[in-house]
């Protein structure tokens, strides 16, 4: 229903309607009032005329002289609006009559006034004047002309005012629309519209528009930041995948090396000695066979050790505390330095998930390897504590600390300038600490390294309820 | 017709019998509406002296009985010649025209309105003289009067223009 019109048209229509309505109402009102006033004053004039002429006719009535009365009535010829004058005697009979000769103004509403004449208190007669208020007619026409003229003038003024208003209101709106178009065309959210400064509502609108742009701008900034963060996380994830496969590779290589170095060579030698010993059934053959068997037993022992190192059955059979004690004893014996194990008082059972036990054991093994390999320590210590919320593993030594060993590494091997970041990336050294950090992070845990010239202390905290997997 | 209206002004048995007499009485009284006498000239009553017309005198006497006043005084009618000088209106009837010169002399320069109903007297010193004129339509007669303004001069009477309006002016 509502048609789309320009602001100018609407303003023009509103102004015109308003002014014309006001004009019409005021013209009508003032015309009505004026006409009433004029009519009243015309009637009053007529009454005065009747009184004057009537009084002049007094002697004519008193002394029975219709001629004289007629003469007096005839003086009304000068009064153009009067059409007819009649003088009545006391009994109401016509005494004299005068009529305006044809050609007088016949326009306008007809009115009549009657003036009673008295002599000495007694009724003497009356005079009746009939007139047409042609003047009123002319006045009405006059009003109509004036109104038409005023309406024309109003039209012109309203047009001018509407144009002015349009410039004040519509122009800023158009420029607002233009700015919006620019924003979407140039994808530039930094564009702003200057305030209008004249119409409060327009300023409000411009303000809202600008703050909308500002909001969009800051949101876009945040989105870009998030996209960047996402990208970084993606990159890290990819790198992690590569690192993990590298780690797997190096572990396999280490295993292959250990297999090749000892049990494989022993097995090969045992095979050779057994073949030779069995081929010659004499004392020397027997000796060869015995030595081959000895080699076989040794190889079996070494393979078991390897198997234990990979995943000691004691962990699955007796739990993490027992596995840690086995690890300390084995590695201590091998490296020739005492490694003490501290556990809470016996009887306090620990109920960890398999994932948690395996992770903690692997971490402990790696940390003890590092202790043996890098620390140059005189003794080591493994401590396992727990409470209702978390479980903590700590591996400590009285060695030389990271700074020393890292300096050596940095000076001899990779030109790595980053001083205190031994675990942020595997490029700094081996994969050990790096893989510990990643595994711990996977279980929502925390890795802390305190290191200095008098020793190193690495602690791992895991929440008790994390790693919701199969339990032991 | 007008007659009837004026008859009411002059209630009297005689006046009803003679319409002209009734008119004369009415006109005479009505003159007082258009003429003003100097206040100092009027005594305790407004005096009208009628000479030489007993019927007129009788008809006028009816006015004494009414409440009518002229310039605040009740009306008194006299028929004595001696009252002529002190009265405000002196009516000289047909029977008194002989005394005219003496009456003119006695009332000379005094505020006395001299009224008569004998033809020619307006030219002989009377201020207002009644006469009868045939109606234009030819039916009956109308009572008219002549005024001689010269005869009003020096009497300190102020006469309304309306009276001249309806009168026939003579010199
Ligand atoms: N207990 C320790 N005492 C001194 N230095 C250590 C100790 N543990 C680790 N490091 C240093 O941190 C480096 C990183 O260790 P890691 O990540 O396990 O790699 P890798 O053992 O293969 O060198 C080691 O090269 C060593 O310089
Ligand atoms: Mg290591």
> Strand fraction band of chain A?
5-15%
Estimated radius of gyration of chain A: 62 Å
- Number of separate helices of chain B: 6
Q: How many distinct domains of chain B?
A: 1
Q: How would you spell out the order of helices and strands of chain A? A: HHHEEEEHHHHHEHEEHHEE
Runs of chain A with pLDDT <50, length 5+? 407-422, 467-472
N-to-C span of chain B = 32 Å
Task: Give a quick account of the main beta sheet of chain B: strands, pairing sense, barrel closure.
Answer: 8 strands, mixed
SS strand fraction of chain B: 15-25%
Strand order of the largest sheet of chain B: 3-4-2-5-6-7-8-10
Report on this structure.
The complex is a heterodimer of chains A (472) and B (171). Chain A is 62% helix and 15% strand. Chain A is built from eleven helices and nine strands. In chain A, the strands form two sheets. A five-stranded mixed sheet of chain A has the order 5-6-7-9-8, with helices on one face. Chain A has a four-stranded antiparallel sheet with strand order 2-1-4-3. Chain A is rod-shaped. With 171 residues, chain B is α/β, with parallel strands linked by helices. Chain B has helices at 2-9, 13-17, 19-31, 54-65, 100-107, 161-166, and strands at 35-36, 46-51, 69-70, 73-78, 89-92, 113-116, 128-134, 141-147, 158-159, 168-169. Chain B has an eight-stranded mixed sheet. A two-stranded antiparallel sheet of chain B has the order 1-9. In chain B, β3 and β4 form a beta hairpin. Chain B is globular. Classes of the chains: A alpha+beta (472), B alpha/beta (171). Chain A binds chain B through residues 56, 58-60, 62-65, 68, 72, 89-91, 93, 119-120, 122, and chain B through 1-2, 4-6, 9, 23, 27, 30, 33-34, 68, 142-145, 160, 162-163, 165-167. Bound molecules: adenosine-5'-diphosphate and magnesium ion. Residues 366, 369-370, 430, 432 of chain A line the site of magnesium ion (MG).
